[in-house]
Amino acid sequence: MNKLFITLALVMSSFITLPFFTHTPQAESETGAFLSGISVGDKAPAFNLKNIDGKKYSFDNIKDANGKTPKGFIVVFTCNTCPYAIANEQRLIELHKAYSPKGYPVVAIQPNDPAIQPGDSFEAMKQNAAEKGFPFLYLLDEKQEVFPAYGATKTPEVYLVDAKRIVRYHGAIDDSVRNPDGVEEKFVEMAIAAIEAGKDPNPATTKAIGCGIKAK
After folding, report:
1. Stated pTM of the model
2. Which of 5, 11, 126, 190 is 20 to 30 Å from 112 by CA-CA measure?
């Protein structure tokens, strides 16, 4: 009996003395896969993705409307099929037209797997962009490697990146995702104004509301 108690005591002490490691992911995809993700103040992950024109683009070769190196990038994960994304398409067009000449182009990235969501195929992206007249880059995250690096879980979801490629704002485009007539606070525009004034955006983060990203 004494040997049994000693054995149990040794087992219990091993659990107490062994280090216990936990990992708290920043985001979780619709499929339950954990994403590493980034926060405001972190370096934005690099990418090199195919645009609807067939060319590949990265932070290094994207230009603003004046053909200059941008002062920042409005990186937005979006798609063709999500009702929330569709409701924000015109707002993205207006953002690009207003802010690309000021050095902040919109860079749209389509993260969904077309095998799960056929309406988000590359051909469908080209067709949608042509029909809506997208003036901005519309890139395909074909290997689904970029959105997990950012920690994006929704479409649409915005990351405002400055010239040093630091994330300065993350979240929604504005405070009225589905109804453009109900917008009171334009979060992305407010964040750009703060950066231009040499200040930190406030709010720096808001909740991105939209459809879950369709991942393998």
Report:
1. 0.84
2. 190
